[in-house]
Amino acid sequence: MKTLVNIATIISTTITSLRLVLMGIISMKAAIIIILGVVIFVAMGNNASKIILECAALIILVLL
Questions:
Q1: Potential cystine with 13: which of 21, 29, 38, 50 (Cβ 3.0-4.6 Å)?
Q2: Cα 60 from chain centroid?
Q3: Alpha-carbon distance 33 to 39, whole Å?
Q4: Terminal CA-to-CA distance of the chain, rounded, Å?
């Protein structure tokens, strides 16, 4: 179950980042950095990384 949640997190981040690029809110470089950051934090898998991911998701939600 944990693996499925991690995969869903990466996929949703990728889709959201691409939407922000298409809307012109962020650049492609920023989207790549966001996606790589999420992959690194998901790979770490500790509680601190989960809190950082949630904060980043909140920031992206505010941008939309």
A1: 38
A2: 8
A3: 10
A4: 29
